[in-house]
Amino acid sequence: MSEKDAMREREIKLSLLKSIASKSKLTEEDVLELGRKVNKGLHERYKKYV
Prior knowledge:
This protein has two helices and no strands.
């Protein structure tokens, strides 16, 4: 994949994320809490492999 293709793909993904976020009813605080829960879950899942 060329650098130009990678940039185009990133632009498409960012556009999709912006579209989803613009329709979201979550507050910034809700998003931070959700992120913490996801991170904690991932930590618990992968700590057994370390």
